[in-house]
Each structure stands twice: as C-alpha cells, then as structure tokens.
Amino acid sequence: MDKAYFPLTVATGHSFCNRENIRAQLLSNIGQVQPTLLSAPRRYGKTSLVEQVLQYDIPRSPLKNHFSHSIELLMAHDLESVQHIILSGIGRLAGNILPFHKSAMIKLQGYFSAMRPEYTMDIKGPRVALSPKVSLQSITEGLMRLDQMAQQEGVTVTLAMDEFQQIATIRQHAEIEAAIRAAVQHSTRVSYIFTGSNRHLLDIMFENASRPFFGQCERITLERISEDKYRPFILTAANNRWGKQIDGDTLDRILQLTRCHPYYINALCHRLWRHPEPVLAVDVASEWAYLTHQESDNISSHVGRLAASQRAVIIALAVAPDANLTGKKFLQRARLAASSCAQAAKALKSADIIYQQKDGAWALLDPLMEVVLSDNSTQW
Fold first, then answer.
1. What is the pLDDT, as a whole number, of residue 379?
2. Does the 19-221 domain belong in CATH 3.40.1190.20?
C-alpha cells in the first residue's frame, strides 16, 4: 500500500490528504462557472488537488453530465504551441462529449466547421483533431465553440490549464492572454481553472490592472497541509501497511524533518512504507539522509546559479529562520548591507525559494535545501 498512500507523482483517491475546504471551494466555482486561479510553489500538490476534484469530487457531487480535462502549458513557447495545446484539450473534450458516430460527425462539422474536425483515437481514448490556421482568433473561437457545444448538448465542462504562467514568457503574451480571456468572460457552460507555480509571474498576469486577466478569477493560494491533518493520515496509512500505528516519536520525526512539505512527506514516506516492519525514528533519520544525499548535487547546482547576495541570505536562513531580514542581527550573520539584503530577499521571495512561516519568520521553502546548506555552514 506504500504507492497507494504516498505516490511520487499525482496523488488522488485515498492517497490524497485533506484540502477539504479548497476542494469544496473549487467545486462551488465550477458549479457557478467562476474562473479560478490556483497558485502554489512547485511540489505543493496543485496537480493532485485539481485531479482529485475532477476525477473524484465531481462524480460524487450534484454536478451531472460533466466533462473535464487538464492541459499542460509548460512546453508552450510561441503562439502556435499554445494554440496546439489548447485545441488538443478542446478536441479531447469534444471526443468525450460526442463519441464517434455518423450523426456526431455532422454535429462536429457544425460546431468546428472552420477547424476541419476529424475523429482520432489514442491510448487516452477518443479525440477530435482540430486543424485551423495558426491565429489568435482560432484560440478564442475554439474555446467559444466548446462552450456552444456544451450548451447545445446539455452538459457542463471544466478545462484546467496547468503552468499557465508560461504564456507570460512568450513574445505575444498580451495578445494570447486577451484571446483566452475573450472566451472565458463569455463562458456559460465551461469552467476554467488556471494553475501555476511561478507566483511572481501569476501576480503580474492576474493582479496588474493593465493585463487582460485582471479581476477575472477568484484566487486560491495553496499553503502547506497542517500537522493536525497529516497526523491521522499517516497513522491510517501505517495501520493499513503494518496492521498497527507507528509510535509518536517516529511520527514527530517525519513531520519535523519534512516541515510538512507535501512533496517531501510523500518522498520520505514512500521509502519508509517499503519497510516490512513498522518504522522507527532511526529509520526516518536513515531514509532522510538518503534523500539528502540524492538531492545534494541538484540543490548545490541550483544554489550555485543564484547571485552571491542571494546565496548569503539563504545560507543565513538555513542556520536559523528570521523575521527581520534587514535587522542588525541577520545582516551581521549574512554579512550584507541592508539594501543588498532587501534586494536579494525580494528576488528569493519572487522565486519561491524563501517563504514566511506562520510565526512570521522567513525560512527556506525546501527543507532539504535547508539541510544541505546548514550542513555546509560550518565551512562558511
């Protein structure tokens, strides 16, 4: 049951922990056709959350005749690639809404006549291939035609767009954003969920009054899952795996080392749940040391690419979190001037390398980065 409870990829079903309030909020937004922006640092479980709602919550909700699909914009790099990704998602939904038969083909020609629709089949199921000319209008029209199809077929639809901030890195980003927004603002049957891991770019896209998506979405920001939610989840998983719960010291050690970071909870427990007998605190320490060793080179490489002042800040924070990054004590530890420290901290916040804890102290977001840097701090 280790993979069932602590997968290293998308976690859904009984491997998904908590987020009840946010799931309920997303369901409500979907029912009301309210566009949603879901943001969080990488590895916080955005994809798992969306898939949990789409695959498990919607089928168990009052929403009937609902179809959903997620598209991934991480590889988008120009107008053509954005159009291809979005139209592929539309085509997947169209193929599910109208399974292949002669009368369905006639309907599809009516909905997407200018896009030369053709039925295809792949390992994921039916899909309608759409092949319009590359243009901003094709994106808007494709999304609006999907909404028209949903209206006339008596269904509702959710289209989730993951890593949406990638559009902001494209030369024609403003025009592409406007093309998508034109369809979103008129949608009556298609609900949109936009997700992303670069909160700085998302802030620019959704909070800047001069950008097309300003004021269009309800924003949800994912935080870490609290200890009081993880404790019963981990104890249930332990009982399922070994027929008994792990002791309190072992559980405390898991939560302490991972800092309740969703990815590291799963990465650590995925290894622990391979043990044939209930694990102890010493096993937790051993497996955490293994993960630290495995990630050490990647972390060192990432840190090495940062500016010198940014490295100074994160090394100082690895030694001890601090609420005042321009205070005398922290500046002495970082060996930086106040202006340099403030500038470095701003960049680190934007990159989601540091975050503010509930107690107000700033700390490293990645607990393994904290371990690697603090282990080397004696040489610093």
1. 45
2. no
